[in-house]
Design brief:
With 283 residues, this protein is an alpha/beta fold. 39% of the residues lie in helices and 18% in strands. It has 10 helices and 11 strands. It has helices at 27-37, 59-70, 107-114, 128-132, 135-138, 176-179, 193-203, 209-224, 231-246, 253-274, and strands at 3-6, 9-12, 50-53, 75-79, 91-95, 101-105, 117-121, 143-146, 151-154, 160-166, 185-187. The strands form 3 sheets. A 5-stranded parallel beta sheet has the order 4-7-10-3-11. It has a 4-stranded mixed beta sheet with strand order 1-2-6-5. Strands 8-9 form a two-stranded antiparallel sheet. The N and C termini lie far apart (53 Å). 36% of the residues are buried. The structure holds adenosine-5'-triphosphate and magnesium ion.
């Protein structure tokens, strides 16, 4: 593991996340994030974009894709939870086998040191207290302070940060001083039918086209009815329907699809599947 010394404290660094991620469609969002991160002048500072959208809409994928494929930087994902403490975000002390204390840099701090991209995933699951420790990092000061190691660390000039947030109910409302530091807000809407087909095809390229098409039709209907069924649900449904069909559990594609909807989405999914508006011209 890589180590680095800062103000006489030896830090063990985290590893970047290596994911097999690709992105299709909604290219304007890719360009907006890239623009937010750009420095247009040597005195300019990058912004800290916040991606908001429904669960499973593609927020983490989009962030990772722009970081690694457009900026060509290493990405470090930090999963924010309700239990994330301020020090978890920066440096954690770990007792070694020889009873000495080792200091482990978080993925966020490692991105700051190495000049990578930090993805603070599901940021609004984290409490205000933890957010408060990041305030200086998120404005033009660009540093964090570790109370445990007693050091202050300045971010590398290439460091970038992006925050993803779910707009579901199980999250915190952030205070205004944090809100104002997490800008611009980039909304990730559900994709249209053509984009959704491409996403399914990209994620399960070996899937049968008929299954992909009925899944897209179902998802588009779900979005039109304002349900929370997501692209991720669609990928799971299509994948399972294909397995049910290929394994012979379900004889035909329609029954495989119905069973997959029931298994992945339950009764709400079946109700939507059965719902037929009087004039249904969607295809
Ligand atoms: N435009 C896209 N191109 C390629 N894959 C996509 C796209 N949008 C969504 N996906 C796929 O949909 C799935 C869900 O995406 P992701 O995990 O990024 O969503 P999320 O918004 O971060 O969800 P959560 O809120 O649950 O964290 C992933 O398998 C991802 O690969
Ligand atoms: Mg996510």
């Amino acid at each position: 593991m890589e180590k680095i010394e800062i103000e006489n404290v030896t830090l063990t660094l985290a590893h970047p996340d290596k994911l097999n991620v690709d992105w299709t469609g909604q290219n304007d969002l890719v360009r907006q994030i890239t623009a937010a991160w750009m420095k247009v002048d040597s005195t300019d500072i990058p912004l800290n974009p916040r991606i908001v959208g429904k669960p499973g809409a593609g927020k983490t994928t989009l962030s990772y894709y722009v970081a690694t494929e457009i900026l060509k930087q290493e990405a470090y994902i930090f999963q924010c939870t309700i239990d994330t403490r301020p020090e978890d975000l920066i440096i954690m002390p770990v007792i070694s086998s020889t009873n000495t204390i080792n200091y482990h840099a978080s993925s966020l701090l490692t991105a700051m040191i190495k000049g990578g991209v930090a993805i603070l995933d599901e940021g609004n699951r984290m409490s205000e207290k933890s957010w408060a420790s990041l305030a200086p990092l998120l404005d033009d000061r660009k540093y964090v302070e570790s109370v445990i190691a007693g050091i202050k660390i300045k971010a590398h000039p290439e460091f970038r940060i992006i925050i993803t947030m779910n707009d579901d109910a199980t999250t915190f409302d952030l205070p205004e001083y944090i809100h104002s530091r997490l800008q611009p807000t980039i909304e990730l809407p559900y994709p249209d039918g053509k984009e959704e087909y491409d996403i399914l095809k990209m994620n399960i390229p070996f899937a049968n086209d008929e299954i992909l098409n009925i899944t897209v039709d179902f998802l588009q209907k779900a979005h039109n009815h304002n349900t929370s069924f997501s692209v991720r649900d669609g990928i799971n449904i299509a994948r399972y329907a294909m397995k049910l069909h290929k394994s012979g559990v379900s004889e035909d594609i329609d029954s495989a699809f119905t069973l997959a909807i029931k298994a992945v989405l339950g009764a709400d999914g079946l109700r939507l599947l059965a719902f037929r508006p009087r004039q249904d011209n969607n295809n």
